[in-house]
Specification:
The protein has about 375 residues and is α/β, with parallel strands linked by helices. The protein folds into two domains: about 80 residues, no CATH class; about 280 residues, TIM Barrel (Alpha-Beta Barrel). About 35% of the residues lie in helices and about 20% in strands. It contains eleven helices and 14 strands. The strands form three sheets. The protein has an eight-stranded parallel beta sheet with strand order 12-11-10-9-8-7-14-13. Strands 1, 2, 3 and 4 form a four-stranded antiparallel beta sheet that branches. Strands 5-6 form a two-stranded antiparallel ribbon. α5 packs parallel to α6 and α10 packs parallel to α11. The longest helix is centred in the last third of the chain and has 20 residues. The protein starts with 10 loop residues before the first strand and ends with a helix. The mean pLDDT is about 95.
């Protein structure tokens, strides 16, 4: 099928492919993801109509204007928008007095204050100062911010009463924020968001994309804080439930996140405050997760910063003789490196020093390629 025959009401997505280390010597043949150090030479275009993929092709960057000209008008408009989204600079995060630039990948450290998280549950239970010290250590090691959570979202985890969740997170957030550490609150409950923001947190990280609690959208809009919208197949108590399968997992997740961005903007949340997370491991099979990683660059078409959370996830164990969570460092660093190669502006990790070191190497290689291609 040529592009002019694609139904005008098909869902079109574009994915940057054919990445290169440098644009030097490739004038007119590369495009750039935002203001990052990532250049590519082609777009993979996919069109889905009535749940069926009706078009897939790879179009070189230099031929793309002509390709767009051959599309039906609605699809040409969408393709033009997606290209603009991919190229749009990702604005820095202003977190109180701290500014976190997103033209280079950043690390978010995970600080779980739960007895039952899949990887480090119980490590900090009842030890407020010890938990805060772990957050301080992450910052010293190079984390741009610390993500504090008081409820496990592993499969089968019990829901935590909001009062208990607040009791777990607020004292730690207060200590971190008082020392100037940027903090995000990992919660899906509006009352916990309010308490955490009042204690000094500056970002809300919601695995339900502000759908679990009917008040959460208003809380974030009124606070004017950045928000991370994550995809999960269920917004109920178990975020892994209700998975009926995906037609095309990457496109399905893209469409869902695109709709959530639009809903947040309609509710008064500025687009510049929105970050997205495709929700690796949440209600997704091994094949789904691998497809999401391989096609991660697709999500740059949303035009907002991309957070990737692959640290110690189940897919690493599935591909390494069922290694337990504590023995998944190599896979975690590999996933983080792959994610930034494909356009992620931030990676959420347990192992901060090792990931920061990997990204320092990534930056050095990028700098060297630009200076001496």
């Amino acid at each position: 099928m040529i592009q002019s025959a694609i139904p005008a009401d098909a869902r079109l997505t574009l994915r940057p492919v054919a990445f290169v280390d440098t644009p030097v010597g490739l004038d007119g043949r590369t495009a750039r993801i935002g203001d990052s150090m990532l250049w590519f030479q082609a777009y993979e275009a996919v069109a889905i109509h009535n749940g069926v993929r009706v078009f897939r092709d790879t179009i070189p960057v230099e031929h793309f204007p002509d390709w767009i000209a051959g599309l039906p008008d609605p699809l040409a408009e969408r393709a033009t928008m997606l290209v603009a989204n991919i190229a749009a600079p990702r604005p820095a995060l202003q977190l109180g007095e701290r500014t976190i630039r997103l033209d280079l990948p950043q690390v978010m450290g995970i600080l779980n204050l739960t007895p039952d998280s899949f990887s480090d549950g119980g490590k900090h239970v009842g030890d407020v100062q010890g938990a805060a010290d772990s957050g301080f250590a992450m910052t010293v090691a190079g984390a741009a911010l610390v993500d504090v959570g008081g409820e496990s979202t592993r499969p089968g985890a019990e829901k935590v009463w909001e009062g208990d969740e607040i009791t777990r997170v607020v004292p730690v957030i207060e200590r971190l924020a008082a020392s100037g550490v940027p903090v995000s609150i990992d919660t899906r409950k509006a009352s916990v968001m309010e308490a955490a923001l009042g204690a000094g947190a500056t970002i809300v990280n919601d695995i339900s994309a502000l759908l679990h609690d009917p008040r959460s959208m208003d809380v974030v809009a009124r606070a004017g804080c950045p928000v991370i919208l994550m995809h999960a197949p269920s917004t109920g108590d178990d975020p892994h439930a209700n998975r009926s399968g995906y037609g095309d997992v990457a496109t399905d997740v893209f469409d869902w996140l695109e709709a959530r961005i639009a809903a947040c903007e309609a509710a008064g949340i500025a687009r510049a405050k929105i970050i997205v997370d495709p929700g690796l491991g949440f209600g997704k099979s091994l094949a789904d997760n691998l497809a999401l990683v391989n096609r991660l660059a697709l999500f740059t078409g949303l035009g907002v910063p991309l957070l990737f959370g692959g640290s110690r996830k189940r897919l690493i164990g599935a591909l390494s003789n069922e290694a337990p969570a504590a023995q998944r460092l190599g896979g975690s660093v590999a996933l983080a490196s792959r994610a930034v190669d494909l356009g992620a502006q931030m990676v959420r990790v347990h192992d901060v020093p090792e990931t920061v070191q990997a990204l320092h190497l990534w930056r050095g290689l990028r700098d060297a390629a630009l200076v001496a291609p």
